Amino acid sequence: MACPVNLLAMPPSLRWLTIRHSATITQHISARHASTTTGSSSSARPPKPPPPREPLSYLPTPSNNPSQSALPAPSPSSSALDAANTIFTHDRPKLLFTAARFLSLPFNTRIPEICILGRSNVGKSTLINALTGLGGLKAGTAHGVQARREGLAITSRKAGCTKTMNGYGFGRVRPDVLKAFLRDREAENKALEAQAGSMSRTERRELKKRPREAVPSCALVVVDMPGYGHASIKEWGVEIEKYLSRRAKAAVLLVDATVGLNEGDRMVLEMLKAHRVRTLVILTKGDKLLEKEAVRDKHGRGQKNGGLSGACVRVWAELRRMEGRHSQWTEGDGWEREIWVTGAGDRRNGPGLGVEGARWAICKLAGLVEDGRTFDAGSEDSPAEVEVVSFDDIVWAPAPSKEDNHIKA
Ligand SMILES: Nc1nc2c(ncn2[C@@H]2O[C@H](COP(=O)(O)OP(=O)(O)OP(=O)(O)O)[C@@H](O)[C@H]2O)c(=O)[nH]1
Ligand SMILES: [Mg+2]
């Protein structure tokens, strides 16, 4: 069985996680492989592989560990995963807005908003569809009614498919959020009425036309961004830069697991750092990488570039290099050290590899779920073989508070 990390370099208490992940991945790939190799006769179609419920994420080893590899992180509890699943899949998701310009974005001061960034074709829209449980590969050709059957966001094999900032609403609005909004709205209306008494008719008409924030109708807003192409932020859009500098509090950067970070990603990371946007990295197309690795394994060629673990190590190295010495956008505080892996582009794999984990990670970034996981650094009877620092010390920073997730002033 191929193992993503060196087992001996891990505390015994965490080894089972590696074995569990490897087993899931191997089972997943062999089922997938069977379906592609035996698929020539339509009557002998193999049974669908079981949906890979297992979340897939990695944490860096402590920085004083010379091997600098990645540890598979423990899974959130099934109740935590269910809470995130409910937000994304229980109610029908809504297309809230489509905006080509920053100024046409609707106000949002109440609902946590997460934007999904990444180069063209990395799989932003595909992941959004997979998060909703509406299918990954074949997505919608239109928003709205058709979206129910075909997928929510529009995707394409051709780069440059999404050209506007598209906001989707997930889950039910929290009653306390709604109550506070309505209370404030009432107070605001009263103040406006008092003000209107001393205004001319034209001024009153203008006041009525002024755009106002809509009554909150969901628990989470996810914004699908246009992808950036050939290295130029200018090409990518002044409007998106405005979004990041003036509105974004938290972002998910999607990175193709088979390619890694490119020049465009680095430029975007610089912007996220400059505007102190909390950043989570999710690797997409993990299924492709695992499939390639499975083929290499079959021919006895071993892993190339460290597989998924290697892909994570390279992202951490880049983030640490970028963070620099005096940055306020730091490991665990500006960017999340845990990297999640997804493979959402193929419907034959049920809901997609690691999608449940991605749901949870996004909800956690939005402050909607708590991180109740703990790490066991080994006991006196079974001491960790490579004791570098306590695992308690490498736990990430606490989830942002609810207040942090309102938009920037
Ligand atoms: N195998 C695999 N294919 C994927 C995955 N994610 C996306 N794809 C494929 O990659 C292509 C591009 O996906 P999109 O979701 O349209 O990419 P995007 O990032 O939204 O692209 P733009 O809108 O152009 O910025 C589609 O053909 C998807 O089926 C994945 O996780 N695994
Ligand atoms: Mg897209």
UniProtKB/TrEMBL annotation:
Start and end residues of each stretch annotated as Disordered: 29-78
A single cellular component GO annotation: mitochondrion
Gene3D superfamilies recorded: P-loop containing nucleotide triphosphate hydrolases
Molecular function as annotated in GO: GTP binding; hydrolase activity; metal ion binding
Keyword Nucleotide-binding part of the UniProt annotation: yes
Record key words, sorted: GTP-binding, Hydrolase, Magnesium, Metal-binding, Nucleotide-binding
Pfam families listed in its UniProt record: MMR_HSR1
Keyword Coiled coil attributed: no
Bias type Low complexity, positions: 32-45, 55-78
Domain (EngB-type G): residue spans on this chain: 110-325
InterPro entries: EngB_GTPase, G_ENGB_dom, GTP-bd, P-loop_NTPase
Record protein name field: P-loop containing nucleoside triphosphate hydrolase protein
Organism the protein comes from: Echria macrotheca
